[in-house]
């Protein structure tokens, strides 16, 4: 079974740091709200990731290269790239991301970044 959603509305309404909306065999849809002054956290995945910003201002850092991002911007993170998304604006940075393959356990909700960091068991298991 598939999944349908008004993704822009869901992303803008999201108040959680991370919420997994849907997990398929080869991809996963997640919405995020990055608080003012916070970031996702520098990371490297062994998977591909697509990020789309719906509101707010920030910067994407991919292998040390910084790019200002805001509503409408997309970031494609290839597997193995060191990356971070940082909120540089005055409001929450609202985005959605697609992981291929899935990264987090289906149904994961982290209300805050601290909660996400403390959840060492949130990664997807095939």
From TrEMBL:
Domain Cupin type-2: from-to ranges: 31-99
One Pfam family linked to the record: Cupin_2
Name assigned to this protein: Cupin domain-containing protein
Originating species: Candidatus Falkowbacteria bacterium CG10_big_fil_rev_8_21_14_0_10_37_14
């Amino acid at each position: 079974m598939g999944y349908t959603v008004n993704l822009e509305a869901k992303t803008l309404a999201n108040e959680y740091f991370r919420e997994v909306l849907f997990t398929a065999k080869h991809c996963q849809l997640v919405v995020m709200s990055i608080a003012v002054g916070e970031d996702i956290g520098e990371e490297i995945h062994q998977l591909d990731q697509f990020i789309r910003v719906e509101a707010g201002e920030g910067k994407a850092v991919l292998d040390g290269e910084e790019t200002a991002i805001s509503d409408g911007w997309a970031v494609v993170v290839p597997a193995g790239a060191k990356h971070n998304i940082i909120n540089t604006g005055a409001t929450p940075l609202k985005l959605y991301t697609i992981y291929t393959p899935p990264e987090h356990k289906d149904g994961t909700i982290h209300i805050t970044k601290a909660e996400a960091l403390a959840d060492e068991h949130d990664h997807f298991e095939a």
